Amino acid sequence: MTKRLRSRRDFGKIPQILAIPDLIEVQKRSFERFLQKDIPASKREDKGLQSAFNSIFPIVDYNEAATIEFVEYIIGKPKYDVGECIPKGITYASTLKIRVKLNLVGTEDAEIKKPAEIREEEVYLGELPLMTETGTFVINGTERVIVSQLHRSPGVFFSHEKVGGKVFHSARIIPMRGSWFDFEFDAKDSLFVRIDRRKKLPATIILKALNYTDEQILEMFYPIEEIKTKDGIAYRQLSDVLVGLKAAQSIYAPKTKELIVKEGSRITKAILKKIESSGIREIPMSKEELTGRVTLGDIIDPETGEVVLESNEEITPELADKILGLKSTTLRLLFIDGIHHLTSIRDTLLMDKVASTDEALIELYKKLRPGEPPTIADAKELFNGLFFNPKRYDLSSVGRLKLNTRLGLDILLETRILTDKDIIEILRYLLGLRAGRGEVDDIDHLGNRRVRAVGELLENQFRIGLVRMERAIKEKMALTELDTVMPHDLINAKPVIAVIKEFFGSSQLSQFMDQTNPLSEITHKRRLSALGPGGLTRERAGFEVRDVHPTHYGRICPVETPEGPNIGLITSLATYATVNEFGFIESPYRKVKNGFVTDNIDYLSAIQSEVFIIAQATSPIDAKGHLIGDTVSARAGGDFRIVTPNEVQYMDVSPKQIVSISASLIPFLENDDANRALMGSNMQRQAVPLLRTEAPIVGTGMEGITARDSGVTVIAKKSGTVESADASRIVVRHDDGVNIYNLIKFYRSNQATCVNQKPLVKAGESVKKGQVIADGPATEMGELALGKNVLVAFMPWEGYNFEDAIILSERLVKDDVFTSIHIEDFAIEARETKLGPEEITRDIPNIGEEALRNLDENGIIRIGAEVKPGDILVGKVTPKGETQLTPEEKLLRAIFGEKAEEVRENCLYVPPGIEGTVIDVKIFARKGVDKGDKTKNIEEENINRLQTDLEE
Fold first, then answer.
1. Residue 564: exposed, middle, or buried by beta-carbon count in 10 A (0-12, 13-18, 19+)?
2. Dihedral sign, Cα of residue 8, residue 13, residue 15, residue 21
3. Is 640 left (phi over 0), alpha (psi -120 to 50) or beta?
């Protein structure tokens, strides 16, 4: 084993129970789910790319004469690897092809008999950018990161707002894709619905459009009482609605004549049971009690057949007399007490003048398509298409899960459209809220916010592109003669590729990677943004959404966020946090049974963890694993409580799980002021990699993990023995052969800092799988090393260090303690012009030999030359048009031939403010262009290097 790896001593009192997960797993796992590259087509799940294709295909033409069916998609091998894409300025991508079937319907017509036909072929869709091993994308030669978005989860949300002292409750159904539904109360407590924030309609119109009658609607939302009239007296059946009401008259037990309830006394549950057990099945009802009640169903005089009272009509004193005067009849009355059961639905029905399902559909059509003449068929198609067609409306499995848990339903997660049951239960819950039952939702709760990672964002973009492609295919199918057509003639993939290119190139969530140091890379990949398409805007976001929420504990870092307009909108995942398949952030907890802390780990989301009592990681435990003391500080439902050890159900895994990677690198973080810790964790990302790195003397244990997962170090893929090691490559021999690790030397990062790898092993040393064998930028012995261990004094010194000024020892400058290397690249092109080709040459008119001293015979600067502003890097001449010659030019032409007058100098110079050493020269030539000697030499060197790798 190499001695070049530092072993850290851990002074922590709390042992590490759970290893820190792969820090860029969020990105990798999401993209793998999207691509399902190594899974056979038949076994691919309906998610990611597969789901996008399934949602569009089969495509049927307007005449239903042909259908295009999707069979599978095929991901090819990338043409270039990552190392080639960056210098060449191209995208690291692989080909995407789809195998489709064109099914032609046969005709049985006697004149033109056509058999059914299937034509199958592979169709090229374009290039799909691939994720590198470090969780980035190479787009046009630059490394980019797709930042995960934190957005409001699809599902149902109940809210309230106060207007003029009155509370107005509302419910909103948000799908992943499709129209929004809003239910709200007005000032008179009638219920209204808005579709896509348009004009409001009585909510009962939706129920009528779903084929419910007025009577069915009333029956769904109100308890029904059966009343029987006999000899001028009304008798009410015993039921639970009597609980809480006052007895109209005293009730005695029929056998014992014992008084059960006195007139005017309230009937409790116990009294109701007593009445039932005494054998009474109905109790008399006074005329006053009957007055003001509302009927369900028409009341008909059994003798004359005359309708005495219509359904949903209020009983007046006169009508009460009429009812009691009937010989014998049964009434069904709605139980509306104004406390638990409000008049809202009844009032809405009275306002709603729509009588049938067809009328309801026509009314909806008028509101959604104003100005168009409605027909019943069109109205039905529009309504069903808006909410009950999977192609146009998608709750997603997350939305269905949220609806089920919020409303207590058990509908299958595969049912991703709205159902009648959903709408009825939402209205029922909303009425309950108005009556004081239930709770409104907290939209900042992490149970109501979810993470859209790279895979889902890409899937949504693919869907947009495929929908555009589908439209174009259908139009082509209508215009093309289908007899000889093949699938590739119909499929034009341009819309799909355009959408993907636009997403990677200009989306708010596709960002130029912050590559200043390994920490800035890893933090960028773990970032969560509330901004972006479908998210919030800086101007609209209030204080609440930016604030730290109790559910962030162990999921989102409360410390790391930018200062300025994005504060709280851009956050970072906590150290141990993972994102589950539904996009909710989960945190790990240790299971606790009867005060005994086990090593079993459960990952819980914000909603799941709310119902448990969770102790902190710092809670004292004895040697046997039992919680010490009579009381323990714990969290329960967003509050802190003091509980007994036996009540504790879970315990935090580590004190580190609260904060992000950046904050966890700060030693003794708990002693810092929160604002300064925020600045510290942000400023660590700005540290440039130094010439001589030095890991901190006092670390937190996260340095090695951060360096490992950032991808800047070289890690042994297999255990073995180092055969050779030099500055540019390491060869490790193992049982199955050799692994060759080519090290990156003086490579320019996105932020112009220097990426350089240095070997940590020597020939003959044995290495183990997963061991760091070469350091990268800002790492030392496999650990993150952002700064230096310098001696600092907090003291005044002649006023020179006033406020934020620092006095620096001269030794720090002399010994290059804080020296860093920055790399700039400069490019020049030699093009074909109208007057002839431009030429890279050392023979430049009017330039002295002194200025050309560092150029080689081809006119290109030599590697190792030290250059200053104004020095020539590449000599280039450009042809110029015929002009009037001066006598001097005529003389030059006479002596040197035509060269001098034909061209002008157009060299690449070092810009002002830059000086340094040339470390590399790259020459790119298009195929078919004559290569210069320099290009051939470079190619030969590369071929020799690859040949050596192949031989080993």
1. exposed
2. negative
3. beta
Residue by residue, DSSP assigns 321-350 as HHHHTSSEEEEEEE---SSSS-SHHHHHHH
Q: What is the pLDDT of residues 722-755, one digit of tens each?
A: 998 999 889 999 888 888 899 999 989 999 999 9
Average pLDDT over the chain, rounded to an integer: 85
Tell me which long-range contacts 179-186 makes (C-beta under 8 A, separation of at least 24). Answer: 179/386, 179/387, 179/393, 181/387, 181/418, 181/423, 183/426, 183/427, 183/430, 185/344, 185/430, 185/434
Which residue type does 823 have?
Answer: I
Quick one: tokens of 252?
Answer: 């005695």
What global pTM score does this model have?
0.87
> What is the C-alpha end-to-end distance of the chain, expressed in Å?
23
Length of the chain measured in residues:
952
**Domains of the chain (ranges plus CATH)?**
25-151+452-512 (3.90.1100.10), 161-215+348-446 (3.90.1110.10), 225-335 (no CATH), 518-664 (2.30.150.10), 693-814 (2.40.50.100), 832-921 (2.40.50.150)
Q: Do 877 and 928 meet the contact criterion of CB atoms below 8 Å apart? A: no
Euclidean distance between CA atoms 614 and 481, whole angstroms: 68
* Half-sphere exposure for 673 (CA within 13 Å, toward CB): 3
Provide φ and ψ at 372, rounded to 5°.
-95, 140
Could you tell me the CA-to-CA distances from 623 to 581, 597, 626 in Å, in that order?
Answer: 37, 11, 8
Judge whether 49 and 97 are in contact, CB under 8 Å.
Answer: no
Tell me which of 71-75, 271-275, 484-488, 560-564 is least confident: 271-275
What dihedral angle (degrees, nearest 10) is formed by the CA atoms of 523, 527, 531, 536?
-130
Pairing relationship of beta strands 233-237 and 191-195 according to DSSP bridges: unpaired
Residue 216, SS3 per DSSP:
helix
875 with 907: CB under 8 angstroms?
A: yes
928: region left, alpha or beta (phi > 0 left; psi from -120 to 50 alpha): left
Nearest-angstrom CA–CA distance, 892 and 911: 31
- Look at strands 720-725 and 714-715 and give their pairing: unpaired
Structure tokens at 592: 């606790």
Strands of the sheet containing 766-767, edge to edge, are: 737-742, 729-734, 720-725, 766-767
CA atoms of 806 and 794, how far apart (whole Å)? 10
Is pLDDT of 923 > 60? yes
